[in-house]
Design a protein that fits this description.
Blueprint lengths: L4 E6 L5 E7 L5 E7 L5 H13 L5 E4 L7 H6 L3 E12 L12 E4 L6 H8 L29 E4 L5 E5 L1 E4 L2 E5 L2 E2 L8 H15 L4 E7 L3 H8 L4 E10 L2
Parallel strand pairs: 3-4, 10-12
Antiparallel strand pairs: 1-2, 2-3, 4-13, 5-12, 5-13, 6-7, 7-8, 8-11, 9-10
Organism: Deinococcus soli (ex Cha et al. 2016)
Protein name: N-acetyltransferase domain-containing protein
């Protein structure tokens, strides 16, 4: 991850530090912040103002432990998305796979080009990081490719992905990535359903879904699956 860091600032008294990280989008993500305490807001403001001199659009998670939302609003930043952790039972609702698209187990798709295409469906979503070779290898980051799924179109291009981690009877996934041209379809929930079905065969019953940068419509659709958002962290943009 270090090559993605392009600049950093440290408070003189060690009460905080931030760095900027490249993202797949035009913005740079703010990492770090100011330690809690009576001077947190002032330190955070000073560090963020320094970072804003870069001239780039910046994104940051509004986290009270590091970058309180009030501080970001004071600087004129606006809420543009969120991170949410959803929990509930494995979904059972039917979801149609769009015509010309196939869902395959990730274990059956060793082609790194297809995996990269599928992983790149997150590229325009707020809060996501750049794809590296470590994200493409089988069972990347401890995931289970026999449970996770990828969507491919008629030309064989990867147009969707749902990575999966199994821990006892709990399935953890990232919110499925879907190519922009297919986001009006039910492919997102079809990927989630296929991954959930594979996990159910392995004894899973519960679901944890971590979602970054989802649209309001996607958030509403997830709530319609009977899932509950147990944690929500706003993401703000500097402009």
């Amino acid at each position: 991850m270090l090559p993605q860091l392009i600049a950093a600032w440290l408070a003189e008294d060690g009460s905080g530090a931030i760095a900027l990280r490249r993202t797949p989008r035009a913005d740079l993500e703010v990492l770090g912040g100011a330690h809690p305490g009576p001077r947190q807001a002032q330190v955070a403001l000073t560090l963020l103002r320094a970072a804003m001199t870069s001239g780039a659009t910046l994104s940051a998670y509004a986290d009270d432990a590091l970058l309180p939302e009030d501080v970001l609003r004071t600087l004129g930043w606006r809420r543009a998305g969120q991170y949410a952790e959803w929990r509930g039972a494995l979904p059972t609702q039917d979801a149609t796979v769009p015509a010309g698209v196939r869902l395959l187990s990730l274990a059956d798709v060793p082609d790194l080009t297809v995996r990269r295409q599928a992983q790149a469906t997150y590229a325009d979503r707020l809060g996501h990081t750049l794809v590296s070779a470590a994200d493409l290898i089988p069972d990347a980051h401890g995931s289970d490719d026999t449970v996770g799924h990828v969507a491919v179109d008629a030309s064989g291009q990867g147009v969707g992905i749902c990575r999966a981690w199994l821990d006892g009877d709990t399935l953890t996934v990232g919110s499925p990535g879907v190519h922009p041209a297919l986001r009006h379809t039910t492919l997102r929930h079809a990927l989630l359903r296929a991954t959930g079905d594979a996990a159910r065969e392995r004894g899973a019953r519960g679901l944890i879904m971590q979602a970054w940068g989802d649209t309001p419509a996607e958030t509403q659709a997830d709530a319609g699956l009977g899932l509950t958002a147990v944690e929500v962290t706003p993401i703000h943009l500097s402009r």
